[in-house]
Specification:
The protein has about 160 residues and is mainly alpha-helical. The chain has six helices and four strands; from the N terminus they run ββαααβαααβ. Strands 1-2 form a two-stranded antiparallel sheet. The chain is elongated.
Length: about 160
């Protein structure tokens, strides 16, 4: 069933008039986590020889920071190049600024850091979508971004 699209995609205050709900966002997150996990395995294969083929220990701080950087680059690259990760594309959602412009690297960095805070608070930042009148998570609000239905897919 297609959703009606208005000429003005924003309500007053620069927030979306219709935003993807919690379950759709959760599905995109799960999809992306599988892709990210595969990427992190590949990233580990690249640096494992630098550790003499041994497992990384808890005292080696480079490794978790390296994986965090790989995770950031995964999300930020997709967000800044089309506004969609592969999971977001599958679920027909897109991240943009509140006035529907593409986000830049600094905004992607802020969004990623704020998403880490959302997760660190036992996921409360994500669950916030259920009570927010505009269906925005903490990281959406803190980074000045919002999720929209993909305009290229009117059946979203």
């Amino acid at each position: 069933m297609s959703r009606p699209h208005s000429n003005n995609p924003l309500k007053s205050g620069g927030v979306p008039d219709s935003a993807p709900g919690f379950l759709r966002r959760l599905a995109a997150i799960v999809y992306d986590l599988f892709l990210l996990l595969a990427l992190l395995f590949a990233a580990t294969l690249i640096v494992l020889p630098l550790n003499n083929g041994e497992a990384f220990s808890s005292t080696q701080y480079f490794y978790p920071l390296y994986l965090l950087a790989v995770s950031f680059l995964f999300y930020a690259w997709f967000w800044t190049h089309g506004g969609q990760t592969l999971g977001m594309r599958a679920w027909k959602i897109k991240v943009l600024t509140c006035d529907r412009k593409p986000i830049g690297w600094s905004q992607a960095c802020l969004r990623f850091a704020a998403a880490l805070l959302s997760v660190a608070a036992c996921g409360l930042g994500f669950v916030w979508i259920l009570i927010d009148p505009h269906r925005r998570a903490w990281h959406d609000r803190l980074s000045g971004t919002a999720l929209f239905f993909d305009a290229g897919n009117p059946s979203a």
